[in-house]
């Protein structure tokens, strides 16, 4: 009878260990599920950010194209620029000298504080 009691005790211990291991595995699987859900959320968020970045890049490209067209009006061809430089007349300009002005002071503007 003692052998049966000891065998039942061992079986009970083994069943407890199996239950404990199953519980641990269940918690681990739950954590893996949460991690996968979080990775999915972050992946979707990154995809949205990539879409926004692509749209911003396209808008920037469009604006750069329009700016290039606007600035093209102000470009001078090299040949025209050389003609202007050779035909430009250099003027000798003498700087104006400051003149001293006479100040009439009658003393009427002074006040006592």
TrEMBL record:
GO terms for biological process: chemotaxis; signal transduction. It comes from the Bacteria. The keyword Coiled coil applies. Keywords: Coiled coil, Methylation. Residues 50-77 form a coiled coil. InterPro entries: MCP_chemotaxis (IPR051310), MCPsignal_dom (IPR004089). One of its GO terms (cellular component) is plasma membrane. SUPFAM superfamilies: Methyl-accepting chemotaxis protein (MCP) signaling domain (SSF58104). The keyword Amino-acid biosynthesis does not apply. Residues 1-43 form the Methyl-accepting transducer domain. One of its GO terms (molecular function) is transmembrane signaling receptor activity. Gene3D superfamilies: Methyl-accepting chemotaxis protein. Belongs to the methyl-accepting chemotaxis (MCP) protein family. This is Methyl-accepting chemotaxis protein I. It comes from Escherichia coli. The gene is tsr_1.
């Amino acid at each position: 009878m003692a052998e049966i009691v000891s065998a039942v005790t061992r079986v009970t211990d083994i069943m407890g260990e199996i239950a404990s291991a199953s519980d641990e595995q269940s918690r681990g699987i739950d954590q893996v599920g949460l991690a996968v859900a979080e990775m999915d959320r972050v992946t979707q968020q990154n995809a949205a950010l990539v879409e926004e970045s692509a749209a911003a890049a396209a808008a920037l490209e469009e604006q750069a194209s329009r700016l290039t067209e606007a600035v093209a009006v102000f470009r001078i061809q090299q040949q025209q620029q050389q003609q202007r430089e050779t035909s430009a007349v250099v003027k000798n300009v003498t700087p104006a000298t400051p003149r001293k002005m006479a100040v009439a002071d009658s003393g009427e503007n002074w006040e006592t504080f």
